[in-house]
Records
---
Amino acid sequence: MVEVLEARKQQVLEKGKDTYALECEKASTAGSVSQRACVFCGSRVVLYPIADALHLIHGPIGCAAYTWELRGSLSSGPELHRLSFSTDLKENDVIYGGEKKLYAALTELINEYKPKAAFVYCTCIIGLIGDDVDAVCAKVEKEHGIQVIPVHSEGFKGTKKDGYKAACEGAFKLTGKDNTTPVSDFSINILGEFNLAGETWIIKDYYKRMGIEVTSCITGDGRVGEIGKAHRARLNVVQCSGSMTYLAKMMEKEYGIPFIRVSYFGIEDMSKALYDVADFFNNEKIMENTKELVRSEVSDLLPRLAEFRKDLEGKKAGVYVGGSFKAFSMVKALRHLGMETVVVGSQTGSPEDYEYLKEITNEGTIILDDTNPLELSGFILEKGADLLIGGVKERPIAYKMGIGFCDHNHERKEALAGFEGMLNFAREVHNSVTSPVWKYSPARMKAQEKKI
Amino acid sequence: MLLRHTPKEVVERSALTINPAKTCQPVGAMYAALGIHKCLPHSHGSQGCCAYHRSALTRHYAEPIMASTSSFTEGASVFGGQSNMLESINNIFALYDPDIIAVNTTCLSEVIGDDLNQIINRAIADNKIPKGKTVMYASTPSFKGSHVTGYANMLTAMVQNFATNTGKKNKSITLLPSFVEPSDMSEIKHIAAEMGIDYIMYPDTSGVVNAPMDGKFHMYPKGGTPREKIIASGDSRYALALGRVGTFQAAQLLDSKCKVKTEILDLPIGISATDAFIDKLRTTSGVTVPESITVERGQLVDVLCDKAQYVYGKKISLMGDPDILFGLVQFCKDAGMEVIHVITGTPAGAKWDRRIKELAGPNAIVKSGAQADLFYFHQLLQNTKPDLIFGNTYCKYIARDMDIPLIRTGFPIYDRIGHSYFPITGYRGGLHLLVKILDVFMDRQDRDASEEKFELVM
Ligand code: SF4
Ligand code: SF4
């Protein structure tokens, strides 16, 4: 039996057995070893890929140090985003306020780097000491003629989700600036694709082959200028809906751009994403291109997947990721590999998300919200999973238990989006699950002995 | 290239840190706490900090790093974190059953002014702490200090909470290591054991953050110093603290609180510092240095003599944690290398600055504190290019930009493995370090050799 904290009992359920609705969207129980991060973390990851903007973190050093270069959002051009700038507040600043320091830092940085825009992230103690960051930003903006955008992401003011919202507000401020550069009739913005391991490039290529212009990508491989004309695209295509739906809604309201939600992971979801976009434009040529694209990609992919599937058939997986949309795609993608998902959860799912997870999983699947290592490892063991999909903090847990692992978070080195991403995913899962190293795990050795 | 923006000309900056050469206190405190057996580090603040600190340690050690959080919300930041802390204590003991909860504060709880002493007393009064269990805390605001001072503060808290003078001395001597790798902690233990010394060492992260794979996830791996040992350290005959910045406070407290005579030495990195450590063990315990240790020393010196020509005169730049830098700088000097830059983001104090300058020589540039960041380091290197860099993973950008080899030391190391298994302390650690240095220079020589000068034997 896996022990679950009393206060968390309703945040875990077994499909087919438990009938209650999963509790979610609440603050983590105090004292738990939560895998979650903070508001600042949320806004940082969303805005980070805007490569020609300055990202200054206003606060003590840690918040900046920990978010320095930890997310593999690649840029095809400038790389200003990869440096770590911090006001590195000291005790005196905490007592007397950090506004002067912020002003000086911004001025120095803008003179030095000539960024296209600047973001100032407010971390926890800025909220407490009450610096008027907006006023400082406005002043610098006036003096330097670039947008200087405060991002109110004080860590304690909610969850990572609130950070997404703060980031969306920040990104929104960059839109609506360029009304002259021509924009095609068949144009979209890609929202919530962060170019981890170059995924944005894969997706952009698909749209190009369909005959669709990507007006801007918010924020993968992002540029301030490009986002400036985003308001004139015809459709917003939102992947990672947890983080970017809010921006899509703002743009819908302000500029009348409709949006659809998609996922680029797995065969069905990827194909559906492209078809949905093609449908929207209702253009024969585009539809034809799309069909051709999906046909050629899928027929290329399937036989290669079958190779991996041979070894993976009947194996079981646990999935614990940040966003629940990703979890859906994982369950489906794993099915393509012949694998069953036996434990699945996310850090930020909504009630509807968990209902949907219930729909697509088998009886007996454990579904959990905001879990912790003790629970997670317990359920994985209980359900006999051979693989865990998660992020940086889950990786060593899986390895200690002697099961395979696939990073589906910031740290991954392989592109997992798109059709070629599916192939990478299959390869990674395959190689991890069938790696000969596990045979040296004492637990496996014991299990083997028992069998004989 | 990422760092192409760094201008060569050094201008004074006051308001800004670019690419920090340090990180914040709680991560060091968390690491120290992991060095007590069955201790769960707890971060008193909002979730983000805890998640970041755990991620940082997870990446550095490739191990599951456990720590709980008070999960502050807006309410807590207005009304204080007392109720979150009390609830945490309840939940932690109910679910994770540690022997000790080691609380570190974050910037947030510090600025609010939560009084952890009072909160813990309240928990005791309310019978929230099961018998035989302890909740301790270290104050670790990050607008002061760095990860090294966080470590120092948690080590001090260990002395404060546990070390007890019963009036009856035991036979052991206490060893307090500064922020070093578990492999180094092992090596220090190895030396003490080889010399037949009855010792107590804390913290001891070996077996915790380099634990073996046994097919299970353990909330509390086998390693770590048992609390009884820390308690008994108050009765030890003598204490040696290794690495001043990380241990000074704790050593002083052990001295004043328990009347244990305490001495501070440099971390035993390199020949001279290891000599000094061993000699101190010898004289304070009245033992002789065993043959095995003499052999280890002899081997290190032998290899150094064999290959000294490959390192002699080489220019070295170092960034990292203050206590480790002492050893590395000394080691470089012992091998005939020329130290040209030494920086640490930790505000290590004027005394450190002075001593390391003395050690490194009159031509070396030395800087510590906030403005000693990697941006500045890069600028220095652009002005005088070294042959080798010692530093953490973040130095790899500079190394690549300037085509200088990098040997990874200190914290964090995210992109290489081995630091938690192979020491740099002691003679064996010295040999390991030396081999790394030689590999770097000899690989370079091979790489850069012209066709006709490319040779089999070096
Ligand atoms: S600097 Fe302070 S607020 Fe930032 S991560 Fe460290 S403890 Fe948390
Ligand atoms: S201080 Fe606040 S903003 Fe910074 S990491 Fe911690 S929770 Fe996040």
---
Amino acid sequence: MSNPTTAVPVHDERPPAAAAPAAAKRPGAPRNRAREWATRAPLLPALIFLIVVTQLPFVATLVISLFDWNSFRPDRREFAGLENYKTVLSDEALRDSIVTTVLLTASVVIVSVVLGLLLALLLDRKFRGRGLVRTMLIAPFLLVPVASALLWKHALYNPEYGLFNGVLNWLGGPQPEWLTDTPLIAVEASLIWQWTPFMMLILLAGLQSRPLETMEAARLDGAGNWQIFRYLTLPHLRRYLELGTLLGSIYIVQNFDAVFTMTRGGLDTANLPYTIYETFYNAHEYGLASAAGVVVVIGTIIIATFALRVVSSLFREEVSHA
Amino acid sequence: MPVLTLRAARIPVVALTAGALLTGCAGMGGGSSGDKTVNVLMVNNPQMVDLQKLTKKYFTKETGITVRFTMMPENEVRDKISQDFANQARQYDVATISNYEVPFYAENDWLLPLDSYAAKDKAFDQKDILPSMRESLTAEDGKLYAEPFYGESSFLMYRKDILAENHLKMPEHPTWQQVADIAAKVDGSRKGMNGICLRGLPGWGELMAPLTTVVNTFGGTWFTKDWKAQLDSPEFTKATKFYVDLVRKHGEAGAAQSGFAECLNNLTQGKSAMWYDATSAAGSLEAAKSPVKGKIGYVQAPVEKTESSGWLYTWAWGVQKASRHPDNAWKFISWASSKEYEALVGKEFGWSNVPAGKRSSTYTNPDYKDTAGTFSEETRKAITSAKPRDPGVQPRPTIGIQFVDIPEFADLGTKVAQEISAAIAGKQSVETALKNSQKLAEKVAEEYR
């Protein structure tokens, strides 16, 4: 998994929802249409390439998900209709992993956004060494996920030689077994550590694009810090919060490294990607794994939509208050 | 100030999605050209990496055969092999398969029998291959389907100094009860040191391997000869309870997430006094930089009702039945699994890196014994005394010591390990874990009755 780190100056964009409709078409204007196609043509190869590399594999997955197919028994491959989907939704282990995925994603996204917002607000102020602090805060996000998971499992959580228990021991405190006592929370903590910087970056971009004149004006009108934050900053950050939530959800739903490395799916920490991995590589059930994969895609869409709805509704209230 | 705009952010997302979908179709190797090539698919273990380094310089130079290697992690390699071999797609001539896959791959008619090649190749010296190894790579039809590259069993490792401090003596052939007693006595004898490290990390190749050997020697089995699941039988329960209690009382902290790697850490860091695990672990414990080098004693796997209880595992070379270059494939196997190759590794990378555990001659080699003296004899004993067809006290439906040799076992073993790992974590009782496991095992057994 690579991180998008395109460095570009932020500029205010219109939200997609409010994008102007396509240029008004005059019916029966063939020359116009030809011109339209002339502008589109250079983009077509890219579009076709996109469809080939993203949509076709997904269609293939959809097709495979309709088959009963175990790779160790190739002679017994047969069309099974929606049988695999029934199994995914009725099999206890798979059902549990759906719940785990939702819990994991929701908690990691929400906590990361909140922490990211706090850190962004801090970094938005001018102080000495700001650049250094910013770089240090971004570091966790630049770490390879599996390396981060290994670091947390061994260097921090391990009750025999990990840092946490070492410090607690030195302070004379208790010696909890983090991954055994609170397995899911332990996994979540490591993911939050990785994803907070990402949220922070997005929200910081939002903060730095605030129109300063408005802030000044508000201050002159006697608005306090909290009011400025509540009625100016937060509404302005709306799209950035949406983006962070959306991207975070999409990535964290797919997270595999943390569960695989830290707990091997034990103690009810198996999320869907890990369960799919097990189904595919251990059980060699291609059809079932594909069906579970399709369920993840649907789930991601639902989560993302839901997250966006929530964020949007918050702001709709804002507007009605204003 | 590196930040994202909405527009810029979309592209990587799309690219990532595409990447994730494409990974499934990567690595399509070329077909064959000419007949001086052989395509090898292997697991990315250190011994294989060494092999790749030496092949061109020695094998290709001698024979003129070009070897094209593809290396992958264990799970991925299994999957790739099953795809290529199932369809007899002939992308690979040779692949590393373990003794877990050989029997049912052979049954699926995916592998080329190697008996005639081995018989003709006098220099290879098939009789030098350890008998239990040969047996575990022989299918139900009595034919040999793979040649071992290296092999391992399991044994008990213990800190000689810690036992001596406590005036304890490790018996030559300990029983599990004796080991549990010693574990209780040495537990905490030094600050932060536990009695014994045992795997608790879920996985058919993690927790399930040592636990199944304990089950065998306690008189339990996964399935009866006629495919009745036995996970809730008194013997299986007693063995699991023993294992879970031992690791909970005198084992390492965080046992439910401890696998081979964590226990190895615990031993080298002086956090555990004993460890029951793979014979291959000894190489790391006795490595030049290991802080416990020379402090470790080795004895055979603890037993209760059987004479031996060590497991048997090997990475071996199998040839795809439809291979276009079966002769080249054999030439490569015959070189990679030869005595000469072992000597070559000894010379080039040091004797501790030799792919051992498959030939009797390795254990009479003075150079090897100098390096691996402390544990080599115990390793040899463990491998030779392993009985893959009769690992317990009752007849078994399949070959295999620490696994049941059916394709479904990887999944079943992993799911059962999840349950027992939860018992180790104290989240449920052993009875509950085994009751759930019995249901899963019954479902699998039904297909075989």
